[in-house]
Amino acid sequence: MDSQDLTSMYFTNLLSQDPQIDPTYGGQSGSSPLTLHDSPTQPPNEPIGVRKSVRGANFTPEEDKLLVSAWLNCSLDAVQGTDQKHSQLWEKIFEYFQQFKETTTERTIKSLIHRWSVIQKATNKFCAKLAQVEGLNQSGMTDQDKFDKAKVMYQALEKCSFQFEHCWHLLKDQPKWIWRTTKEDPKRRKTMSPSPTPTRCSGATIDSAFDMEADEVMENEVIELDRPIGRKAEKGKRKAQSKQAEENFQLRKMKYTLLEESRAQEKEFYRMKAEKMEYDKEKEEKKLRLEDERLRLEAEKMVIEREKELAKIRHEDERLRLEAQKVELATKESDQRIMMMDVSGMPELQRLYFQQLQREIMARRSTSQD
């Protein structure tokens, strides 16, 4: 037991499970109806005036398993299981039974004690038969065969079939009901007595236990069970486990705190990164706006310069036109003056010159008119 976890000392998980007979063994399931009652029946005929005791409803397999679980939880506690009175023990078992029961049937402490004695006695006897079959060590027998043979031997002895397989399944691995004598079982020793000695399935507990049938074990063996953990050792073990649990809690708390700080830092990092991205975006947008404004001004400047250039060209064209008009006017006046000259009284050479000019003027005007 020293190597087991603290949770192995408690049996609350038995309520959430539906234990069946180990596949290694056979037999009926623990859900078969029972015929034993929690109180004996009264004779059919009683004198008038004598109060009849009311027999309670049969215990169901679920109630049997709950009772076994309550007994294991309350009696096998290394700290308090061996340091409480019989009445205190059964008050705790009754409270446990009332807390976890799923039926509306009311059970008293007396009925639970009676039912437990029936379960314990029947289970002890069945363990004795099973230990006897194991002691024979017959070759060729499987575990299934040994289990079936133990059931047959029990039925022959008790004149009824074994009806507490569902309870035996929960109790068989406890030191009080250990029956298997394999390599993994507790220590074994050969006795020096020449007479056969029975194999014990039960040990000392708080409430009285029923011994197995001593005259039915064939092998001269005694099983020495490992000594259960003491009260002081159990308290130390629980204290160490509580300290370890507290340290684990503090470590988890520290880990959670570090995780929260890491998340906060990561959140702050992403917030700053988002702010930087927003700032860079605004900066880029401002830069684009400035560039657009610069391009707009450049375009306006180019338009103004183009208009200036066009105005300058128009002015130059106007000036040239005026110059051309002026030249044309001067040419016309010159032509008119030459054409109006009287060349008859001029010397021959001068007369020929002006006549040539007059012909040229007439030829130019004829060309311009065409």
Describe this protein with a few key phrases.
disordered N terminus; 7 helices; rod-shaped; mainly alpha; 3 domains; 370 residues; two-stranded antiparallel sheet; 57% helix; coiled coil
Task: Explain what the structure shows.
The protein is mainly α and 370 residues long. It has three domains: 6-40 and 53-229, no CATH class; 234-339; 341-370, no CATH class. Helices cover 57% and strands 2% of the residues. The chain has a two-stranded antiparallel ribbon. This is No apical meristem-associated C-terminal domain-containing protein. InterPro entries: NAM-associated_C. Residues 162-294 form the No apical meristem-associated C-terminal domain.
Brief synopsis:
This protein has 370 residues and is mainly α. Helices cover 57% and strands 2% of the residues.
